Amino acid sequence: MMPRYSSLRLPMLAAAALLLAGRARAQGQVTPPASATPGQQPAAASAQAPARQKTDSTANWSLHFQQTVIQQWHNDLSPRYAGDHSLQARENAKLSLTTTLFLGRRLWKGAAVFFNPEVAGGSGLSGATGIGGAPNGETFRIGDPSPQVYLARLYFRQLWALGPDRENDEDDLNQLKGSRPARYLSLTAGKFSIADYFDQNSYSHDPRTQFFNWSLMSAGGWDYPANVRGYTVGGVLEYVTPALALRASVTSMPTDANGPTLDLHYGKAQATTVEVTKPYALRGHPGAVRLLGFRNQAAMGSYALAVRDAGFSAPDVTAARAERRTKYGFIVNAEQEISKEIGVFGRFSYNDGHNETWAFTEIDQSLSVGATSTGARWRRPTDRLGAALVANGLSADHRAYLAAGGSGFILGDGRLDYGLEYIGEVYYSIDFPRYHAALSPDYQIVFNPGYNTSRLPGPVHIAALRVHVEF
Question: All domains of the chain, ordered by start, with CATH?
């Protein structure tokens, strides 16, 4: 669990970020992408960001910057009992900070390399524990809240054209300005985030510019391969056409649950991910459906064995680990533009839940739905308003383990009276194009945090403020 983080202050960092953005030479507005990886153009982006103009010029370099500061607070609670990984009844407001440099270089025809150093610091509420759908997607489950510098991404990407048609890409985060094939095969290898390529959604994917909650930035039931910072090492193969996209990857898993070190022995630990994306148009408005399947293999512990072996003691899933155990699951992910101002989305995700959560969060099933709108109707066309609802659940083995007094790296109240975890979130992003910045107040309400119907007499109310600068 992370200690309280009070050495940073939101007003000072926000002022510094706005000043830095104001000095930037690049002009234009903040237009948050659905991904930090090229070739991931949203299927339905009108309610997410203004359309970009296409050009035929080509650039060999790309340089961008982002900084995101989030401060969150929750109301005082009166729990009947608490465990090591419970949401704290009372705590100070928590602050998080991420700063990223995006550098890209074209190498030869169809090939480029991308390099992203990153700084992150701060803490989530209760050290990002106590709620399956944690409320701040910019926080990590690490012990030291002081800002740390690390390598986020370093990868090579090669595209091979499968036809003569071309499309133009604008200079963007990890995207070089110039034309690319409309139909192509590509190979990416190196260190990256698996979420750069899979489970994309134009309206619900990026906690720096969209919804804050973990189970809205990604499918909650996908225990996606990543170290504690959210990155992995491996390769992604893509077949992309205007009518269909197929993606497959083999990537590394951490050596330990929620661990910082990736296991590069792919024979004993790896994640295989496959996804098909079908874009379409409904009455002239774009939409997309994505179907994703995954298989993770690592030295996971078995919840059922941990309970069986514990006897009258609290079970410990780490004592029931084996060298090779697997987790299977799938995601159904859809988005649809309703008008140029409004879009809707939904996700359903599932994993078998027999073995311990290894990388993302303690959610085995999740359903989310929501909508976003631009501010065009109130003469703020680059502002965005979003609202969403989430229901998260656990497998029978997982909830029996927690009910017996077991703990994972996210949850552990000491007992459990099980119920679905319900979350509602509303955010409003106020855009400041002159400063390449956005200010976003956010509100979340959580019922049954950690799936516990008896721990709290009422819901948790979480208020937050986000400052995001990008150019």
Answer: 10-470 (2.40.160.180)
Kindly report, residue by residue over 228-260, the tens digit of the pLDDT: 999 999 999 999 999 999 999 999 999 999 999
Residue whose C-alpha is closest to residue 15's, from 457, 448, 439, 461: 439
Q: What angle do CA 386, 392, 394 make, to 5 degrees?
A: 165
- Nearest in space to 285 (alpha carbons), one of 236, 335, 329: 335
**Cβ atoms of 314 and 403 closer than 8 Å:** no
- Crossing angle, helix 396-403 and helix 303-310, to 10 degrees? 30
DSSP 305: H
Please, are residues 345 and 370 in contact by the beta-carbon 8 Å criterion? yes
**Other Cβ atoms closer than 10 A to 9:** 12
What is the C-alpha end-to-end distance of the chain, expressed in Å? 34
Length of the chain in terms of residues written: 471
Q: With CA atoms as reference, report the closest residue to 347 among 213, 217, 246.
A: 217
Q: Which amino acid is at 361?
A: T
Angstrom CA distances, 242 to 166, 202, 220, stand at: 11, 17, 28
Query: Residues 6 or more apart from 313 whose CB is under 8 A from it?
Result: none
Q: What is the mean pLDDT of each run of 10 residues along the chain (471 residues)?
A: 36 41 33 42 44 61 96 92 92 94 95 96 91 93 81 97 93 93 97 96 96 96 95 97 97 94 93 98 96 97 96 93 95 97 98 96 98 96 97 97 95 95 98 95 97 89 97 93
